[in-house]
Design goal:
single chain; about 130 residues; alpha+beta; two-stranded antiparallel sheet
Amino acid sequence: MDVKSTLQVTNSFPFPNVEIPATDGHHDSPNPPAAAPRQKQNASYQTEMIKKLREVNVDANNVGWYTSANLGNFVNRETIENQYHYQKDLNERTVAIVHDVSRSSQGSLSLRAFRLSPIFMAARKEDKFTTE
Protein backbone atom coordinates (compact mmCIF):
# COMPACT_ATOMS: atom_id res chain seq x y z
CA MET A 1 0.00 0.00 0.00
CA ASP A 2 1.31 3.47 -0.84
CA VAL A 3 1.44 5.86 2.11
CA LYS A 4 2.87 9.29 1.29
CA SER A 5 4.84 7.83 -1.65
CA THR A 6 6.28 5.01 0.50
CA LEU A 7 5.39 1.45 -0.43
CA GLN A 8 4.53 -0.58 2.66
CA VAL A 9 4.71 -4.37 2.44
CA THR A 10 2.99 -6.03 5.38
CA ASN A 11 2.52 -9.64 4.23
CA SER A 12 3.93 -12.06 1.72
CA PHE A 13 3.30 -15.63 0.71
CA PRO A 14 5.31 -18.11 -1.36
CA PHE A 15 4.07 -19.74 -4.51
CA PRO A 16 3.34 -23.45 -4.23
CA ASN A 17 5.81 -25.83 -5.83
CA VAL A 18 4.67 -26.41 -9.38
CA GLU A 19 5.92 -29.14 -11.65
CA ILE A 20 6.69 -27.62 -15.03
CA PRO A 21 6.40 -30.19 -17.80
CA ALA A 22 9.67 -30.85 -19.56
CA THR A 23 9.90 -30.95 -23.31
CA ASP A 24 12.39 -33.45 -24.73
CA GLY A 25 13.82 -33.91 -21.24
CA HIS A 26 14.63 -30.23 -20.71
CA HIS A 27 12.77 -27.38 -19.06
CA ASP A 28 12.15 -24.25 -21.12
CA SER A 29 13.63 -22.24 -18.28
CA PRO A 30 17.01 -23.03 -16.72
CA ASN A 31 15.44 -22.28 -13.33
CA PRO A 32 11.76 -23.39 -13.34
CA PRO A 33 10.97 -22.05 -9.83
CA ALA A 34 12.08 -18.58 -10.92
CA ALA A 35 9.31 -18.59 -13.53
CA ALA A 36 6.60 -19.25 -10.89
CA PRO A 37 5.18 -15.71 -10.76
CA ARG A 38 4.41 -15.93 -14.50
CA GLN A 39 2.77 -19.36 -14.41
CA LYS A 40 -0.93 -19.11 -15.33
CA GLN A 41 -1.99 -21.53 -12.59
CA ASN A 42 -0.52 -19.16 -10.01
CA ALA A 43 -2.81 -16.29 -11.01
CA SER A 44 -5.77 -18.04 -9.39
CA TYR A 45 -3.62 -18.95 -6.38
CA GLN A 46 -2.68 -15.28 -5.88
CA THR A 47 -6.31 -14.21 -6.20
CA GLU A 48 -7.42 -16.79 -3.65
CA MET A 49 -4.68 -15.84 -1.16
CA ILE A 50 -5.53 -12.14 -1.42
CA LYS A 51 -9.21 -12.97 -0.93
CA LYS A 52 -8.37 -14.95 2.23
CA LEU A 53 -6.26 -12.09 3.60
CA ARG A 54 -9.14 -9.67 3.05
CA GLU A 55 -11.51 -12.07 4.84
CA VAL A 56 -9.42 -11.71 8.01
CA ASN A 57 -9.26 -7.91 7.59
CA VAL A 58 -5.65 -7.66 6.39
CA ASP A 59 -4.57 -5.08 3.82
CA ALA A 60 -4.37 -7.18 0.69
CA ASN A 61 -3.08 -5.54 -2.46
CA ASN A 62 -0.64 -7.21 -4.77
CA VAL A 63 2.37 -4.88 -4.90
CA GLY A 64 4.79 -7.27 -6.56
CA TRP A 65 6.84 -10.34 -5.84
CA TYR A 66 9.98 -11.36 -4.02
CA THR A 67 13.01 -13.52 -4.59
CA SER A 68 16.25 -14.31 -2.85
CA ALA A 69 19.78 -13.79 -4.10
CA ASN A 70 23.30 -14.73 -3.17
CA LEU A 71 25.98 -12.00 -3.20
CA GLY A 72 23.73 -9.73 -5.26
CA ASN A 73 23.42 -12.22 -8.12
CA PHE A 74 19.78 -12.06 -9.20
CA VAL A 75 19.48 -10.37 -12.58
CA ASN A 76 18.60 -12.96 -15.19
CA ARG A 77 15.99 -13.54 -17.87
CA GLU A 78 13.43 -14.95 -15.38
CA THR A 79 13.75 -11.96 -13.07
CA ILE A 80 13.28 -9.52 -15.94
CA GLU A 81 10.35 -11.48 -17.40
CA ASN A 82 8.64 -11.73 -14.00
CA GLN A 83 8.92 -8.01 -13.37
CA TYR A 84 7.83 -7.18 -16.91
CA HIS A 85 4.76 -9.39 -16.42
CA TYR A 86 3.85 -7.71 -13.14
CA GLN A 87 4.32 -4.17 -14.41
CA LYS A 88 2.50 -4.85 -17.67
CA ASP A 89 -0.42 -6.96 -16.41
CA LEU A 90 -0.98 -5.86 -12.82
CA ASN A 91 0.30 -2.37 -12.17
CA GLU A 92 3.19 -0.30 -13.47
CA ARG A 93 4.13 0.48 -9.85
CA THR A 94 4.73 -3.13 -8.75
CA VAL A 95 8.16 -3.98 -7.39
CA ALA A 96 10.51 -6.93 -7.19
CA ILE A 97 11.93 -7.24 -3.68
CA VAL A 98 15.29 -9.00 -3.51
CA HIS A 99 16.56 -10.47 -0.25
CA ASP A 100 20.30 -11.10 -0.42
CA VAL A 101 20.75 -13.95 2.04
CA SER A 102 24.56 -13.91 1.98
CA ARG A 103 24.75 -10.21 2.79
CA SER A 104 22.05 -10.59 5.44
CA SER A 105 24.03 -13.38 7.10
CA GLN A 106 26.82 -10.86 7.69
CA GLY A 107 24.65 -9.08 10.23
CA SER A 108 22.61 -6.53 8.29
CA LEU A 109 19.29 -7.27 6.59
CA SER A 110 19.71 -6.82 2.85
CA LEU A 111 16.44 -5.99 1.06
CA ARG A 112 16.24 -4.02 -2.18
CA ALA A 113 13.26 -3.11 -4.36
CA PHE A 114 13.38 -2.76 -8.15
CA ARG A 115 11.16 -1.66 -11.03
CA LEU A 116 11.77 -1.66 -14.75
CA SER A 117 12.00 1.80 -16.28
CA PRO A 118 9.33 3.02 -18.72
CA ILE A 119 11.98 3.06 -21.47
CA PHE A 120 12.84 -0.58 -20.81
CA MET A 121 9.14 -1.54 -20.70
CA ALA A 122 8.60 0.06 -24.12
CA ALA A 123 11.69 -1.65 -25.58
CA ARG A 124 10.60 -5.04 -24.22
CA LYS A 125 7.05 -4.57 -25.54
CA GLU A 126 8.48 -3.93 -29.01
CA ASP A 127 10.82 -6.96 -28.70
CA LYS A 128 13.86 -4.71 -28.83
CA PHE A 129 15.35 -6.31 -25.72
CA THR A 130 17.81 -9.17 -25.89
CA THR A 131 20.10 -10.78 -23.32
CA GLU A 132 22.97 -11.12 -25.82
